[in-house]
Amino acid sequence: MKNFLTTALLLLTALCANSQQVHWSGSPLLSPEINPDNSVTFRLFAPNASQVEVVGDFLSQQLIDSPFGKVEVPGSASLVKDENGVWQYTSAPLSSEFYIYNLVVDGLRIADPSNVYQLRDVSSIHNVFIVPGERGDLYAVNSVPHGSLTRRWYNSETLDMNRRITIYTPPGYESSKEDYPVLYLLHGMGGDEEAWPMLGRTAQIMDNLIAEGKAKPMIVVMPNGNAIQEAAPGESTQGMTAPTMNLPKTMEGSYEKAFPDIVKFVESNYRVKNDKSHRAISGLSMGGFHSLHISKEYPDLFDYIGLFSAAIMPLTETPSSFYEDTDKKLEVQFQKNPKLYWIAIGKDDFLYNANVDFRKKLDENKYDYTYFENGEGHIWRNWRIYLSMFVPMLFQD
Amino acid sequence: MKNFLTTALLLLTALCANSQQVHWSGSPLLSPEINPDNSVTFRLFAPNASQVEVVGDFLSQQLIDSPFGKVEVPGSASLVKDENGVWQYTSAPLSSEFYIYNLVVDGLRIADPSNVYQLRDVSSIHNVFIVPGERGDLYAVNSVPHGSLTRRWYNSETLDMNRRITIYTPPGYESSKEDYPVLYLLHGMGGDEEAWPMLGRTAQIMDNLIAEGKAKPMIVVMPNGNAIQEAAPGESTQGMTAPTMNLPKTMEGSYEKAFPDIVKFVESNYRVKNDKSHRAISGLSMGGFHSLHISKEYPDLFDYIGLFSAAIMPLTETPSSFYEDTDKKLEVQFQKNPKLYWIAIGKDDFLYNANVDFRKKLDENKYDYTYFENGEGHIWRNWRIYLSMFVPMLFQD
Q: Who has the most CB within 10 Å: A135, B29, B99, B241?
């Protein structure tokens, strides 16, 4: 019976709409295949295609000039067709990472039909794969205790809206009676409450760092930072509309003003240590901007602040009253000696110079902060690294 | 600054790897577009392609003969290319539903690059869209109170494994002090703990039925029914391996034997009413088989049993001792008068005759059950309908 059912379902699947590609030999086509030397082979069965390329962040990226300075674009490589219509390309051995890619078939960019592992980044779908090793293993699911990841809704009185929020609770949270510190982790422009858990591999990073004893068990709160949205695309009453980077009210104070609603929700719904020394806030790009302004506006809330590739702006050009007197408010914030003010950015980030200017201001005022700079630019690869570095510094005393 | 950042990020996205297609006019290509008359337009920019088709369950399905009886295959339709290289097809007005589709470009089946809404069904990725109306609205996110959806892990002592589980708690669960009834909702072969929440729209259906007063607030537990797996593909230590329908130990008693571990976990971690009259179990296909055998093996556990397109087998052919004496155990189960024993199947299901035989056995023994039959076959469209029908019958007294 088991065989009958399996065979019937396989047949049904094959007849219906199976996008998993099957090799001419009858076995499924494997793509990507991580080889023993950590090279990666991509395959596509497309006998009618004239050209197939793979575009991904594992290929040497190019820096090109733009009105905003140099920006990185992923490299591409050509697949070669064999006599059976299977296109194939094998990369050089790759360093351990969580990579993204797409295939391009006669100019049409698609997701690899043989790889079900895909992530949405704003309005794009990318395939993903992990090359094992030190960094890749940090982003993988390992044999360690796992926390819980919950999608739920909170009421924002300030925004007069029910809003979706993603919350990681560490392993053991449910069965213990302890109170936990909290990290508020904010996404960038075009992101939402799905960005850090999906592209950022937050639950995997937290599980692994906690298991290794490198991070304290903590709650990680991933809100939606777009004041206009109830929830991520497809998860709200807006329905399945096309996601856009271009939302109103993302950097004009509304979200930052309403942020205490989130803290209040978390602290009345979870067992938390609700004092400054047990609260951290960090974010990438726009989320770094939000972290900067929320933490300076409420200088008694957060003892740990992380700006990852932060969209730090010329502060005089901003429209909201929320951003008025920023220098004065920063002075108040730093007088209160936050335990960690951490700034991280890649050398090739188009926001690099804005961060240089901001650090100059902090230096001139002798404000205490920690700075980390690495290569590459405004990409998720860096934000996962920054999260992995930031978290171990939190709540250590 | 906001404009600077938006523009820079849009540029970065466009340069990097944006799979969202852009029309020659510069605006994003809309696909699918639900028109006011509920016809749907599909578009693809592929100037180099020779043929583009859409394959989906909204097109008239064909019944074809197979060794297992008639099976349904989705219909297809051709897109037509305009002078700008944009292919387009508009369907007839569609009835309200949650539909799936793929595009086929010169024989290559792909996901629509303009539609970020995609779901994995075993090893296939399908695009999805909702046509609004009575049924589609039941599967959509509406302005109603929302429950929480949590991915967490439990320890199965019997299987000696930590295992992932998806749990829906109804709106208000966290803030109330009430105890709730529990529905255990099981997936089919090739599925996992992501099947019901994603393909089955469980959270949306529950939120909407509860808001309309049609269902009691309840907890819905969606376990992983593959005894060999810790978790869904990509969510376990197996890493990002290709999903397969062909797993060992799915219908040989291991999972059913270990099921009390799940009940124990739920009842010691959630505020539940822990008696027979507040427990329900149901499942689709293999999950219907599991529901049949778990409920008959533990006749004091469940007062509500739902078999959705159940993989009911000729019981003498099964290998496990768990399936021995099934007739005798069914007799015991029905002597204890379960409040609802609900069987549902589509007329075109390849398991239709097996269900006829099973009902004949129940009839011969004068066991009390309720039967629902509709059109179509072994497809998710039916399983969402069955869930929507089953849930309102639960825990009503």
A: B99
**Is the model's pLDDT at A318 over the cut of 70?**
no
pLDDT, tens digit, 9 for 90 and up, residues B272-311: 999 999 999 999 999 999 999 999 999 999 999 999 999 9
User: Over the stretch A297-312, which tens digit does the pLDDT of each residue have?
Assistant: 999 999 999 999 999 9
* pLDDT at residue number B11: 66
Q: Cβ of A110 and B246 within 8 Å?
A: no
- How buried is residue A271: exposed, middle or buried, by Cβ count under 10 Å (0-12/13-18/19+)? middle
- ipTM score assigned to the predicted complex: 0.94
| A49 vs B contacts (CB less than 8 Å) | 106, 108
Q: How far is B107 from chain A (nearest CA, A)?
A: 7
Class of domain B148-393: alpha beta
- Among the partner-chain residues B113, B132, B152, the one whose CB lies closest to the CB of A148 is B152
Burial class (CB in 10 A: 0-12, 13-18, 19+), A317: exposed
**Shortest alpha-carbon distance between residue B130 and chain A (Å):** 8
pLDDT of residue A11: 66
pTM of the model: 0.95
**DSSP line for B111-180:** --TT---EEEETTEEEEEEEE-SHHHHHHS--SS---EEEEEEEEETTTTEEEEEEEEE-TTTTT----B
How does pLDDT run across A72-122, given as a tens digit for each residue?
A: 778 899 999 999 999 999 999 999 999 999 999 999 999 999 999 999 999
pLDDT tens-digit readout, B105-128: 999 999 999 999 999 999 999 999
Quick one: pLDDT at residue B56?
Answer: 95
pLDDT band at A250 (very low <50, low <70, confident <90, very high): confident
* Among B301, B94, B85, B75, residue whose Cα is nearest residue B181: B301
Is A19 within 8 Å of B118 when comparing Cβ atoms? no
Label residue A316 by pLDDT band (50, 70, 90).
very low
> What stretch of H or E contains A353?
helix A352-364
Contact status, residue B217 vs residue B271, Cβ threshold 8 Å: no
* CB-based contact, A140 to chain B, within 8 Å: yes
Cα–Cα distance for residue pair B318/B329, rounded to 1 Å: 15
CA B127 from centroid of its chain's CA atoms: 15
Residue ranges of domains in chain B:
21-138, 148-393
Q: Among all residues of chain A, which has the CA nearest to that of B313?
A: A1
Q: In 3-state terms, what secondary structure has residue A307?
A: strand
Placement of tokens 């469209």 in the chain: B381
Helix or strand (DSSP H, E) at B11: helix B2-16
Strands in chain B per DSSP E:
33-34, 40-45, 52-56, 62-66, 69-73, 75-78, 80-81, 86-90, 97-105, 108-110, 118-121, 124-131, 148-156, 161-169, 182-186, 219-223, 279-284, 304-308, 340-346, 370-374
The CA-CA-CA angle for residues A319, A324, A329, to 5°, reads: 145
- B9 vs A21, A120, A245: nearest CB: A245
For residue A52, what are the contacts with CB-CB under 8 A and spacing of at least 6?
Answer: A44, A46, A78, A79, A81, A87, A103, A104, A105, A106
Question: Which pair of tokens denotes residue B327?
Answer: 């007739």
What pLDDT score was predicted for residue A190?
94
Tokens of B330: 């069914």
Percent of chain B with pLDDT over 70: 93
CA-atom Rg of chain A in angstroms: 23
Length of chain B: 397
Whether pLDDT at B17 is above 90: no
If one counts every other C-beta atom within 10 angstroms of the C-beta of residue B62, the result is 13
State residue B395's pLDDT score.
98
- Contact at CB, A47 and B107, closer than 8 angstroms: yes
pLDDT at B16: 57
Burial class (CB in 10 A: 0-12, 13-18, 19+), A328: exposed
